[in-house]
Amino acid sequence: MYLNKAMVFGNLTRDPELRSTPGGQQVCSFGLATNRVYKKPDGSKGEQTEFHNVVAWGRLGETCAQYLRKGSSAYVEGRLQTRNWDKDGVKQYKTEIIAETIQFGPKGASQGSTPAPRAAEPVAAKEDAIDYPADEVNPDDIPF
Which sign, positive or negative, has the C-alpha torsion 61, 29, 57, 76? Predict the structure, then answer.
């Protein structure tokens, strides 16, 4: 069995870029930075930043382009994929995280950036909402 899974939590390094393929499929790409804090051999604190390229397809990509901005925090789960191409006779490589799940960080958690205004979304009433009884529950009535 093989496993190709990437899980990263970090801040966007640039605004998401939404494009369309010739077939009409939406694709969004953005950069994500993660930090690692460690202790150096001399006892001082060291910090290392890694930069990741993230690609989200379809509705997930559209949602990212709508709600994420540079500096926003996001948790991304996906798989690693490396693309290659020739540029002036030199082979170029780019490794990306193809997102399967993205969770946006807390609103206002971005440092030093102002998110762009967002379009208001209509709020629909939940038809399948659970209708809980209004009676008080006595803990002595619980059998366990």
Answer: negative
